[in-house]
């Protein structure tokens, strides 16, 4: 008989295992978090933190980013990958925030989604970590992978995975569940070599797709 994962039990166990779970990206202002999250697409948080350590010393405000030299900025974020699109989006987002939101990162899903480079994941990250709002669940590679392995979702897109998780995760836990799954994904349930023997969820986990590259 196939095991069935209970979402509430998953949350309870992960909260005990990772009581200090929080976002791995380093930032000091709402706009810095927005920039770091855009840079994190298809890139590790560790690499992003290395890049932003220097970046945020040079560019301190949305105005600084809006006035950045395109070619120089591309070189500064080159190691995060997709640097041309990320440069265009970050500078574009800075200009839009200055022109349409009085220089401040907007605090609504609707407004955030109008910014270049901002989709639901980035918007959810900003809303929860900056404004304390639970409007959705940020689905990154860790959340996507663990949701499949735990049998919480079998959808093929991040948007559909988010929709399914929102139906089974209590609203108050929408923000923290991402950090909990990310922490567990980094520590135990890695893409290539999950440490199932050390996993606190092993007794309930159906291990769906552990050997399937599609859910890595």
Tell me what the structure shows.
This protein has 216 residues and is mostly helical. Helix content is 53%, strand content 0%. The protein contains 11 helices and no strands. The protein has helices spanning 7-17, 30-39, 45-58, 62-66, 70-76, 83-100, 109-112, 120-131, 141-149, 158-168, 174-187. α5 crosses α6. The longest helix has 18 residues, at 83-100. The two termini are 25 Å apart.
Specify the structural class: mainly alpha
Helix residue percentage: 40-55%
What oligomeric state best describes the polypeptide chains here?
single chain
How many E-type strands?
0
Largest sheet, in brief, is: none
Strand proportion, as a percent range, falls in: under 5%
Topology as H/E string? Answer: HHHHHHHHHHH
The gyration radius over C-alpha positions equals 18 Å
Uncertain residue ranges: none
| Count of separate DSSP helical elements | 11
Calculate the terminal CA-CA distance, rounded to whole Å: 25 Å
Overall morphology? elongated
Please, what is the average pLDDT? Answer: 94
């Amino acid at each position: 008989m196939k095991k069935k994962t209970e979402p509430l039990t998953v949350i309870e166990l992960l909260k005990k295992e990772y009581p200090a779970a929080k976002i791995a990206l380093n930032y000091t202002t709402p706009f810095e978090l927005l920039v770091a999250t855009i840079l994190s697409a298809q890139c590790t948080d560790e690499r992003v933190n290395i890049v932003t350590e220097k970046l945020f010393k040079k560019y301190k405000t949305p105005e600084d980013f809006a006035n950045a030299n395109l070619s120089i900025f591309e070189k500064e974020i080159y190691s995060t990958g997709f640097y041309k699109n990320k440069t265009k989006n970050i500078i574009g987002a800075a200009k839009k925030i200055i022109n349409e939101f009085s220089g401040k990162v907007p605090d609504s899903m609707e407004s955030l989604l109008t910014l270049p480079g901002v989709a639901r994941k980035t918007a959810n990250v900003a809303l929860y970590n900056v404004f304390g709002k639970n409007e959705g669940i940020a689905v990154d590679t860790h959340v996507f992978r663990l949701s499949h392995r735990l049998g919480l979702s079998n959808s093929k897109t991040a948007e559909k995975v988010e929709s399914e998780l929102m139906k089974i995760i209590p609203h108050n836990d929408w923000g923290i569940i991402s950090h909990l799954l990310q922490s567990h994904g980094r520590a135990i349930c890695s893409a290539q070599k999950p440490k199932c023997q050390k996993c606190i969820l092993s007794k309930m986990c159906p291990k769906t797709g552990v050997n399937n590259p599609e859910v890595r």
